[in-house]
Design brief:
alpha/beta, 5-stranded parallel β-sheet, 6 helices, 5 strands, binds 4'-phosphopantetheine
Length: 164
Amino acid sequence: MANNNIAIYPGSFDPITNGHVDLVKRTLRVFDKIVIAIATNPEKDRCLFNVDERLQMINEVFADLAGRVQADSFQGLLVDYAERKHSQVIIRGLRAISDFEYEFQMAMMNHRLKPQLETLFMMTGESEFYTSSRLVKEVVSLGGDVSGLVPDNVLKKLKQKFKR
Ligand code: PNS
């Protein structure tokens, strides 16, 4: 049976940013539990952090909410994963208008694949409006400071990766 109180928050999370963290905390005002689900594709993955590193960073960030926030990874279709988790709700964050087309396409495709699954969009908090995992990695790799945009444990790991 589907559980309406569990939301799935899928993504790459390479790495998790404060924008993601804000969204998880706001989602917990509406849902009892949220599963942060890292989508993996061994053939296509070109991520900076491997899945275990990403899971570990997420678990550290939400250590005090461990009963309500679960980090997990999956392969294959998101709609099948959501079904395995008995969830009917996918959460995605929306930042700028540029996100909309991609998000709209995914939501429509997922709806076509599993009409009973709903995608809910949350607006990203204003201070995280311009933050993305991609930009954060680029800035750190070029010696810029991203403190305040990612959790402290993530900042440390980023600096280690780029030897900053
Ligand atoms: O953080 P991202 O990279 O924008 O997340 C994209 C993600 C992981 C949500 C999307 O690529 C996905 O759902 N992948 C799982 C495979 C799948 O179901 N693909 C069809 C999507 S319509």
